[in-house]
Design goal:
globular; Rossmann fold; alpha/beta; four-stranded parallel β-sheet
């Protein structure tokens, strides 16, 4: 199972300028979806993706796009684990957001990997056991 972070979904669905070729993370995400890999969107990621859109039309477009993806929702234990991750990272000199700590905690609880383009997760992973998705090399 692979949890997808806001950074990847934003690149895939919110970019104003469509570049060719698409960013590598978008290609990986699209490949995972096409291959019917178990891609999960945490509820907090959906909230982040839908926050700050400029129009009701864009909000509805993104909401409709996200309907087909299974969700993972935080539990009380997720929030407790996120606080522990935050404290551990801070003690190691790594400052991360509470939302990122929650996404990390949920990924760990699901025994999953996180597909992300956010370097904050790269910095926090060694301190909390977070597994980041690494795409196998192309053949």
């Amino acid at each position: 199972m692979i949890l997808v972070d806001t950074s990847v979904l934003s690149m895939a669905f919110r970019r104003k300028v469509k570049t060719v070729p698409e960013p590598a993370l978008v290609l990986i995400f699209r490949r995972l979806v096409t291959e019917d890999q178990p891609v999960i969107v945490p509820g907090i990621v959906l909230q982040e993706l839908l926050s700050g859109v400029r129009s009701a039309e864009e909000f509805e477009r993104l909401r409709d796009l996200m309907e087909g993806f299974p969700r993972a929702f935080a539990t009380q234990e997720s929030h407790v684990s996120a606080a522990k991750i935050s404290n551990t990272c801070r003690q190691a000199g790594v400052i991360v957001s509470t939302v990122d700590c929650l996404i990390a905690a949920m990924t760990i609880e699901c025994k999953s990997q996180l597909l992300t383009g956010d370097d904050d997760f790269l910095m926090m992973a060694p301190h909390c056991g977070l597994q980041l998705f690494e795409s196998p090399p192309a053949v």
